[in-house]
Amino acid sequence: MFPAGTRISVLTTQPLDRLLDYKAPEGGCRTGDFLEVPLGPRKILGVVWGEGDGTFEAAKLRAAYRVLDVPPMREEMQQFLVRAADYTLTPWPAMLRLAARAPGLSDPPSMKTLLLRGSETPSRMTDARARVLDALEAFDGQPVTLKELTDEAGVTASVVKGLVQQGVVAEIEAPRDTPYPALDPSLPGKALTGDQRAAAEHLAEAIRAGAYGTTLLKGVTGSGKTEVYLEAVAACLAAGRQALVLLPEIALTAEFLTRVEARFGAKPAEWHHGVTMTERRRCWRMVAEGGAQMVIGARSALFLPFRDLGLIVVDEEHDTSYKQEDGVLYNARDMAVLRASLCAAQVVLASATPSLESWSNAEAGKYRRLDLSSRFGPSVLPEMRAIDMRREELPATRWISPTLQRAAEARLQKGEQVLFFLNRRGYAPVTVCRACGDQIGCPDCDARLVEHRFQNRLVCHQCGLSIPTPKACPKCGAEDRLAPVGPGVERLAEEAQELFPEARLAVLSSDLFASARDLKARIEEIAAGDADLIIGTQLVSKGHNFPNLTLVGVIDADLGLKGSDLRAAERTFQQMRQVAGRAGRAEKPGLALLQSYEPDHPVIRAILSGDEEAFWRAEAEGRRMLAMPPYGRMAGIVLSSPDLAQAFGFGQALARGAGPLKEIGAEVYGPAPAPIARIRGRHRVRLLVKAGKTAPLQPALRAWLAQFRPPANLRLSVDIDPQSF
Ligand code: ADP
Ligand code: ZN
C-alpha cells in the first residue's frame, strides 16, 4: 500500500521509454491499480508499477488523480507484459495498451448511458436517420454505446441526439456488469473413441496436476480435436480454473459457441472485434473477477486479466493470422506458451497440419504430442491426385482443365457439391494496357491494383485504395485497351458458370461480405445445400464443414510455391491439406484434384503421398542444414520511410555497426527491399539477423539498436521470428 502522497512509479500507455513518477492519489493505492494521472494538460491511463525510484525531482512530482474502479493488474500479468515486451522488443507502453483494451478503461465517460431503439418513429426521415435505425437493427436490439452507434451508422453524435429527443432512440443506464451464466463441466460429453479418450485423459490429468505444460494435439480435420480439447476445458473448469480458447477466424465462433453450449449448458464469453464494447467491458471485468469461466477469442484475448487461467487452447495453431504483421508483432502461439508458463497452465496446440516450430518442439520433447489417427465416424480422408497441367489442353484465359471439368460434372450430376479453390480475391490480379503495356499499379504501394468486377473497382490489397475501374489507361489515355491478366475467384466464377450453366454458384471471398455475420450465414446456407459449386479463397480452408462436398479442385497448386520464401513449402503443404479436408466429411468419400505445372515438385509429391511425417522430416532437415528457424533464431528489422534513400542509408549504417550482434556470432543480411517494398507511400527496407539457437538474441539486438537514433520520419520495427525469410 502506498499512502497518499508517497512516490509511486507508473507505467502509462503513452509512447515514452520509461516509467513516470507520481504522488499516490487521495486514499492511497497499491501495486497493480489502474490510475488516471496527469500528463501535461491531459489525463491519461496508467498502472502502479511499484515504488518510485526517486530519480525524478520531488518538487515537480504531480499527484495521480484517482484509482479507477476496475480490478487491479495482477503481478502475473505485470510479469507477462515485461517478458512479452522483452521477447518481442516492444516498448512497455505498447504492451500495456494491449492489456488495457477494455472500453471502460480507455474511455470511461461514454459508458454511462447506452442506446437502443425507442418506440417512436422519426418526425422526418433523413438519410442519416435511416442509417441510425439500420445500425440499431444490425445490433439485434442490443443496447450500444454512442460511439458504437455513430461508428456503425457513419453519422455524427448530433444526429443520434436528435433522435433521442424524439424518443426514436431510447437511453438507458448502463447495467452493472454481470457474471456469465455458469458452465457445468459435469454434463456428459460425447462418448469418445479409443484414441480420443486416451488424448482427453492425458490432458485432463495434466490439468489436474496444476503445472505448466504444452501439448500438440494433432489430427486431421474431423478427427475430433475439438471434442478432445473440450474435455480438457471440462477438467479445467472442474478444477475451478478459467479456460481460454483462441480461434483464428471469428467467422467460426458462432458454430463453436453452439458446441460449447451443447457441452456445458451455457455460452462462454467472447472477445474479438466483432463484440460490442459493452460486452467487451463486461468480459474484461468478469475475466478479472472470475465471473467468466471460459473465453473464446481472437489472439488479443491473451492479454485479458484472467484471475486463474488453467488452460489455453490455440486452435489451428499453424494459422498465420495468429501473427499479424502490424502493431505489436507477436505470435499468439508463442505468447500463449509464455503466458501459461507464468501461471502454471496447460497449453493445447490443435492442428491437422502443425507449424514446423510446434512439430519440432514435440520431436525434441519440449511439447507432449497426442495424435488422433482417423476421422470420426465412417468418413475417410479424401484421395488426392495431381492434374498435370502440361498435358491439358486449354486456352490461356481458361483455368479449369478438361480433367477437372469432367470430374466436377460427374459429381454435380449426382447432386454432390464441388469446391474450386483459388487463393486470389477479385476478378484479375493484374490489369494491363494493351496500348502502352503498363500494368496499373497502386500509386502508394509496390503492388498491382486488383480488379474487383462485382464492385466495378480496382483495389490495392496492401493499402485498401479503391478506385472506379477506368475506361481509359491512366498512363497513356488509350480507350478500351485495358485487359485483365490472370484469374481471381470472380473470373473463375465466370468461367465456371459457362462450363456448368445449370449449377448454382456461390463465391466465398472475404471482400464480398459486409460482415462476419453475413459470411457465416451464407456458409450455413451453402452447407445446407443452397449451392452446387463453391468458388472460394482461403476463407473456405478453415474449418467449415460442407457435408455434401465430395470434390475439391485446387486451381493453382503451384501458387504458394513461387517466390523466395523459405516457409512457402510448409504453407502450401498446410493449405492444400486443409482445403482437401473440406471434402468427404460425411458418408461420401472425397477427392481432391490439384492442378499443377510441377507435379513432381517435392512439396506437391509430399502432399499427394499423404506421408506427412516424411514431409516434416525433410523440411526440418532442410532448415537444420541452413540453421533456419526453428533450428536457429531470426529477427527482421524493417525500416520504413517516405524516402527510400534515407531508409537504405540508415539500414547500411545499422549493418556497419553490428558489433553487438557479431559478439553473439549472429549474421546480418541486408538492407534489402522488404517482402512488401512499399506501402502507403512508405518505402520499406529490411535487415535480417540470424543467430544460433541458443544465442542471446534479444539483448544483442537491444545493444545494437541502442547505438542508433532513427531520423524523425523513419520508423523502425523489430520482428522476432518473422513469418517470411
Ligand atoms: P476436429 O476439431 O478435429 O475438426 P471435431 O471435434 O470438430 O473435429 O469433430 C468432427 C465432427 O465429428 C463433429 O461434428 C463432432 O461433433 C463429431 N465427433 C467427433 N468425435 C465424436 C464422438 N466421439 N462422438 C460423436 N461425435 C463426434
Ligand atoms: Zn496501395
TrEMBL record:
Reactions it catalyzes: ATP + H2O = ADP + phosphate + H(+); Couples ATP hydrolysis with the unwinding of duplex DNA by translocating in the 3'-5' direction
EC number(s) on file: 5.6.2.4
GO cellular component, one term: primosome complex
Co-factor: note: Binds 2 zinc ions per subunit.
Record-listed Zn(2+) 2 binding positions: C442, C445, C460, C463
SMART domains tied to this protein: DEXDc, HELICc
Hydrolase listed as a keyword: yes
GO molecular function terms attached to this record: 3'-5' DNA helicase activity; ATP binding; DNA binding; hydrolase activity; zinc ion binding
Top enzyme category: isomerase
Pfam family, one: PriA_C
Cofactor(s) needed for function: Zn(2+)
Keyword terms: ATP-binding, DNA replication, DNA-binding, Helicase, Hydrolase, Isomerase, Metal-binding, Nucleotide-binding, Primosome, Zinc
Gene Ontology terms: biological process: DNA recombination; DNA replication initiation; DNA replication, synthesis of primer; double-strand break repair
Domain Helicase ATP-binding positions: 206-372
Coiled-coil residue windows: none
Subunit annotation: Component of the replication restart primosome.
Similarity annotation: Belongs to the helicase family. PriA subfamily.
Known function: Initiates the restart of stalled replication forks, which reloads the replicative helicase on sites other than the origin of replication. Recognizes and binds to abandoned replication forks and remodels them to uncover a helicase loading site. Promotes assembly of the primosome at these replication forks.
NCBIfam families named among the record's database cross-references: priA, PRK05580.2-2
Official protein name in the record: Replication restart protein PriA
